[in-house]
């Protein structure tokens, strides 16, 4: 390994001795679709001039960055200007001089000793990952501290020969740890320059080599699967039988607590439930004294977009034993689901919703495009064949195709949900066959149709932020709409936690959505919580907050009228669900009902309540043991001590240690 690194460094030295004739060019792909570019130019001064941008449905960053490197390959100076993902202005500056390292941006300001670490720009381009990898390969022990905080290390993960027409080249994969919950994977050329960063969501690859992305992705997935299988073997505790005694059991059908309960699990199923002393405990069972704790069904997060199989660790560590993926690359998603189902990776059950969208400037970055009835039938049939239970319609679907898709899906017994397509109201969406609406903002947009008809753009957020306060459940027009939802038994997936960051978050301040967990996260993950979200016009902070409060009032009105709600996040895997439930309680929904929504409620919507969602003999043993009583204090759902998924026991403290999460204080 050391010989390979020395050869790599020799190539770096040779490459850096002369300036390149022109910029290195990279293509930015979102879910496999071209969405932007990155260029890296070495200036005569030796500085690097980097440009990076991409378009994601009208959102996306556009930045220019200039970096000067010192002899170690560490930034001596960095300047970043442009806009962030939500089009907020970006201005960032770093200097290492006079014995000090100083940095300032719209979210951070600080200083440290000049040699305190490698500075990663808050809004830096992906090329910085390549610079960090190169610097770590030169560093003693292949590790170095980071600024503002943290520590990163690197290890080689093998070479791959990639081909473009008649040309071939060898590229090397490296694993960077200390950046995220899982190792960050980066590919470098033989000369040490950045070649690619590949993920199912966002890929940056050297221009002209886009055809090798599938191969690099397969190599990464194979490597990641081996790592996750090793972790699963260490983290999964298998017992012939498990008995919980002295538990306060959450009875999800009744939304109430039953004290002094014994629950026996065997063969992946719940074998017996009864009062302490009335249930026979099998010989050799692992007995867990649950006195002072709540035993509840595993939680359901009904709105996720898995980014990798690693998300499964975050979910299980937070008591989530079932998720519903609301749109993903089918091949990757089914592979991750298979790993979870077989126990080759730690993860929840996965319910599948297949995403479809129309073509156009704001189309979702997915492969499945539907612009006519023929394409609609092909898409629905294919999702059904793959085992999907639901079709999710996205914003660029033509309104006239919506009832066609609904008819095709319903013929297969599949559910239909989604964003309300542009140029269509939520009322029309319901009347023409939707079983469910994703995101609470679309309920508000039903009353803003004269203001914003094209909801493909970020206007679907900003219009609600500006006018949401004007819409109240007490209004007759709102009452009539809620009556329609109740009549059709339309399910609503509010994702309040995502809007809390979007409407209430402020740059430089940890969003309230993450305040309870921020200090436990890996340093660079925690840093991301400072980003804020929507650019808020000066003087409108209070207006945006009040519009968000209107969202909470709307969710309470849904509950009061018996309109089904499901608890979904569309946010940070695992850790966000507790905040979603806290927000339902803040809206005025009683905590026991919130807990039922997040357990049996999800199971009923997905027609899985005969096997999951409650603690009853014969059901799958998906359980969570929580320190405290979440029916009195919903935040106690954060205190998960033991999780059973299919009867296999996991300890969140062990999972947290494996992914770099600090223990709760």
Features:
17 helices, 30 strands, alpha+beta, 8-stranded mixed β-sheet, 15-stranded mixed β-sheet, disordered N terminus, 665 residues
Can you describe this structure?
The chain is an alpha+beta fold and 665 residues long. Among the domains are: 2-233, no CATH class; 419-589, no CATH class. 29% of the residues lie in helices and 29% in strands. It is built from 17 helices and 30 strands. The protein has a 15-stranded mixed β-sheet, with helices on one face. Strands 16, 17, 18, 19, 20, 28, 29 and 30 form an eight-stranded mixed β-sheet that branches. A five-stranded parallel β-sheet has the order 21-22-23-24-25. A hairpin with a 5-residue loop joins strand 4 (62-69) and strand 5. Helix 6 runs parallel beside helix 7 (402-411), helix 14 (541-560) crosses helix 15 (576-587) and helix 15 (576-587) crosses helix 16. The radius of gyration is 26 Å and the shape is globular. The two termini are 40 Å apart.
Write the layout of secondary structure elements.
Layout (H helix, E strand, L loop, with lengths): L1 H15 L7 E7 L2 E10 L5 E7 L7 E8 L5 E9 L5 E9 L2 E5 L4 E5 L4 E2 L7 H12 L4 E5 L3 E14 L2 E11 L6 E5 L5 E4 L4 E5 L6 H23 L5 E11 L4 E11 L2 E7 L10 E4 L3 E5 L1 E6 L6 H7 L2 E6 L4 H13 L6 E8 L16 H13 L4 E4 L8 H10 L3 E4 L7 H6 L4 E3 L2 H5 L13 H9 L8 H13 L2 E3 L2 H9 L18 H6 L12 H20 L15 H12 L3 H15 L17 E5 L12 E6 L2 E3 L1 H8 L6
Parallel strand pairs: 9-10, 16-19, 16-20, 21-22, 22-23, 23-24, 24-25, 26-27
Antiparallel strand pairs: 1-2, 1-15, 2-3, 3-4, 4-5, 5-6, 6-7, 7-8, 10-11, 11-12, 12-13, 13-14, 14-15, 16-17, 17-18, 20-28, 28-29, 29-30
Helix pairs in contact: 4-17, 6-7, 10-14, 12-14, 14-15, 15-16
């Amino acid at each position: 390994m050391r010989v390979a690194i020395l050869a790599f460094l020799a190539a770096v030295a040779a490459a850096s001795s002369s300036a390149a004739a022109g910029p290195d060019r990279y293509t930015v792909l979102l879910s496999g679709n071209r969405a932007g570019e990155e260029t890296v130019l070495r200036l005569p001064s030796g500085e690097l001039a980097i440009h990076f941008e991409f378009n994601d449905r009208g959102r996306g960053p556009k930045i220019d960055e200039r970096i000067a490197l010192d002899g170690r390959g560490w930034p001596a100076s960095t300047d970043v200007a442009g806009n962030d993902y939500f089009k907020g202005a970006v201005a960032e500056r770093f200097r290492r001089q006079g014995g000090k390292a100083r940095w300032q941006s719209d979210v951070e300001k600080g200083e440290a000793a000049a040699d305190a670490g490698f500075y990663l720009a808050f809004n830096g381009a992906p090329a910085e990952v390549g610079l960090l990898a190169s610097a770590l390969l030169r560093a003693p022990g292949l590790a170095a501290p980071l600024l503002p905080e943290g520590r990163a290390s690197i290890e080689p993960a093998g070479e791959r020969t990639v081909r473009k027409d008649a040309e071939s080249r060898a590229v090397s994969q490296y694993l960077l740890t200390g950046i995220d919950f899982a190792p960050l994977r980066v590919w470098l050329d033989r000369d040490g320059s950045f070649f690619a960063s590949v993920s199912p969501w966002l890929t940056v690859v050297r221009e002209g080599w886009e055809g090798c992305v599938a191969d690099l992705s397969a190599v990464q997935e194979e490597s990641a699967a081996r790592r996750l299988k090793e972790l699963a073997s260490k983290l999964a505790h298998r017992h012939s039988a498990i008995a919980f005694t002295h538990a306060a059991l959450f009875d999800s059908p009744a939304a109430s607590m039953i004290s002094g309960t014994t629950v026996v699990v065997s063969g992946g199923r719940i074998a017996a439930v009864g009062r302490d002393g009335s249930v026979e405990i099998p010989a050799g069972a692992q007995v867990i004294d649950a006195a002072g704790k709540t035993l509840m069904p595993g939680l359901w997060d009904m709105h996720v977009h898995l980014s990798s199989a690693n998300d499964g660790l975050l979910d299980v560590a937070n008591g989530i034993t079932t998720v519903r993926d609301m749109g993903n690359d089918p091949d990757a998603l089914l592979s991750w689901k298979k790993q979870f189902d077989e126990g080759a990776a730690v993860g929840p059950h996965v319910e599948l919703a297949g995403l479809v969208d129309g073509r156009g400037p704001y189309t979702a970055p997915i492969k499945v495009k539907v612009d006519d009835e023929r394409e609609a039938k092909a898409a629905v049939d294919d999702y059904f064949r793959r085992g999907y239970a639901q079709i999710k319609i996205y914003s660029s679907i033509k309104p006239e195709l919506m009832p066609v898709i609904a008819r095709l899906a319903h013929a297969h017994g599949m559910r239909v949900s989604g964003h309300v397509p542009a140029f269509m109201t939520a009322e029309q969406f319901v009347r023409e066959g939707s079983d469910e609406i994703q995101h609470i903002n679309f309920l508000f947009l039903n009353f803003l149709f004269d203001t914003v008809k094209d909801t493909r753009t970020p206007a679907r957020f900003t219009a609600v932020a500006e006018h949401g306060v004007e819409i109240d459940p007490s209004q007759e027009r709102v009452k009539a709409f809620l009556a329609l939802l109740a009549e059709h038994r339309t399910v609503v997936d509010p994702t309040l936690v995502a809007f809390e960051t979007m409407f209430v978050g402020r740059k430089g301040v940890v969003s309230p959505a993450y305040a309870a967990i921020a200090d436990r996260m890996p340093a660079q993950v925690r840093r991301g919580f400072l980003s804020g979200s929507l650019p808020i016009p000066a003087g409108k902070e209070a207006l945006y907050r009040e519009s968000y409060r209107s969202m909470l009032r709307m969710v309470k009105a849904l509950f009061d009228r018996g309109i089904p709600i499901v608890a979904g996040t569309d946010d940070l895997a695992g850790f966000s669900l507790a905040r979603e439930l806290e927000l339902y309680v803040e809206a005025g929904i009683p905590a026991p009902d919130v807990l039922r929504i997040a357990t049996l409620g999800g199971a009923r919507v997905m027609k899985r309540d005969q096997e999951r969602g409650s603690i009853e003999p014969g059901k799958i043993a998906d359980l969570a043991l929580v320190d405290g009583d979440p029916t009195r204090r919903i935040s106690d759902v954060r205190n998960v001590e033991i999780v059973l998924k299919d009867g296999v026991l996991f300890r969140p403290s062990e999972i947290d240690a494996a992914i770099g999460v600090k223990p709760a204080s």
